[in-house]
Amino acid sequence: MVNASEIKEHAEVIGSDGKHVGTVDRVEGGRIKLTKGDSTGAHAGHHHFIEMNLVKSVDGGRVQLSVAGQDAVSHEEEQNGRSVN
After folding, report:
1. pLDDT at 39
2. Would you list the domain boundaries of the chain?
3. Looking at the domain that runs over 4-74, which CATH code has it been given?
4. Could you read off the pLDDT of 17-47 as tens digits, one per residue?
5. How many of the other CB atoms lie within 10 Å of CB of 47?
6. Average pLDDT estimate for 49-78
7. pLDDT for the residue numbered 70
8. Fewer C-beta neighbours within 10 Å, C or N terminus of the chain?
9. Over the chain, what is the mean pLDDT?
């Protein structure tokens, strides 16, 4: 498992397919908090979160997830832990 301290602010988060998922705001409570700018549609203007257990690796300032970009988006959570979808 990746150590949360390896994940830096402003790092790009990508799916296993290389698709952009978001940008790290910070790691908070065992989850990656994505910047507000990465939220779109009905969920625009606030932070979404990705569970750390989806992180496969951190390399060169990028956080690579173990799931494809579209799948990662379906795993995003609100601050209260509820699913975005």
Report:
1. 64
2. 4-74
3. 2.30.30.240
4. 999 999 999 999 889 999 987 765 555 667 7
5. 19
6. 88
7. 87
8. N
9. 85
SS (H, E, C) the chain: CCCHHHCCCCCEEECCCCCEEEEEEEEECCEEEECHHHCCHHHCCCCCEEEHHHEEEEECCEEEECCCHHHHHHCCECCCCCECC
Phi and psi for 9 in degrees, rounded to 5? -55, 140
Buried b (16+ CB within 10 A) or exposed e, 74-83: ebbbeeeeee
The two structure tokens encoding residue 70? 């579209």
What type of residue is 1?
M
CB 33 within 8 A of CB 52: no
